[in-house]
Design goal:
Blueprint (H helix, E strand, L loop, with lengths): L3 E7 L4 H10 L4 E2 L2 E7 L4 E7 L4 E6 L4 H5 L5 E4 L1 E2 L2 E2 L1 E2 L1 H13 L4 E4 L7 E4 L8 E3 L3 E2 L2 E6 L4 E6 L5 E5 L2 E3 L2 E3 L1
Antiparallel strand pairs: 1-5, 1-6, 1-9, 2-5, 3-4, 7-8, 10-15, 11-12, 11-16, 13-14, 14-15, 17-18
Length: 176
Amino acid sequence: MNPNWYVLYTRSRCEKKVASLLSKRAIENYCPLNRVNKKWADRHKLVYEPLFSSYVFVKANPTEIYRIKQVTTDIVNFVYWLGKPAIIMEIEIENIKKFLNGYSNVIIERKDIRLNDKVKIISGPLMNREGDITAIENNKVKLFLPSLGYLMTAEIDINNIEIIKQPIYHESKLVS
């Protein structure tokens, strides 16, 4: 059987610990870490925080799921979808990695998405990616990762986006 990416739900603030324990047991995992500039009264510091609260991704065969849950009591369970552990596509994991390599202070928000303009990013870490823009505010573009249901927000210059399909307006009416 081919291994798939699954999502582990961990106890609060245990993401890094769970990832470390999985790595020690030679279980492939990914805990996306966001580079965040923290400001205290006396200093500024770059810290690495888990991007997804209480989530760690793990790559395994379905037969290994029970064994993985036994690694530590900090693993609450796998995230389930329709009665089975939710499978995350490899491309989604790669997109998260590319996004985090290119940007810091990434903000995520859970949201239902309505599709708008179809665009292609022409510069930056997500170059040549096509997608649907859900909002443009102060040069921020929101990218939707379908299998996760999250938006990732990053500062992208409007000049680095090319519109692929624009709505056509005819006599004050929208024509698709």
